[in-house]
Design brief:
By secondary structure, the chain is an all-alpha fold. Helix content is 78%, strand content 0%. Helix 1 (4-33) packs antiparallel against helix 5 and helix 3 (76-109) packs antiparallel against helix 5.
Amino acid sequence: MWTLTVVLIATATLLACVVLGGGLYEVLVVDSAWPKRPGIIQSRNGGVSRRRFWIPAHTALEALLIAALIVGWHQPDVRVALLVAAASHAVMRVWSLVDFVPKAVAFEQADPASIDEATAVRWTRRRLLRLPLDLLTCVALLAALAVA
């Protein structure tokens, strides 16, 4: 029988995998093209709006991860795996909010002609370093689901 703990962990795992997939999509598709064509990431110029995906995806994942931690706290193996997932996700989010998001907003709001391609390429390369944290979150949640 499905318990609330298993359902919450399974849903959080699904969302973590969606976030990882979104990151992979941005790295492989969006970030490989936009430094040469900044309008791709500027919704006012007909480009993609990253906010429409990332804000709901991260908000839902964080809410489910916290709920899963609360209901799964009494199971030590589940708790450890969920804490690893929460820690890796928290590190990625804090790093993003301090470093990546302000620069992404600046790129999105700048005049496309004024964006330095070399600076944009450096930003996209540094962004790759977030993927291992997203992967760790997914693996830890899968481990929690397996134990639950």
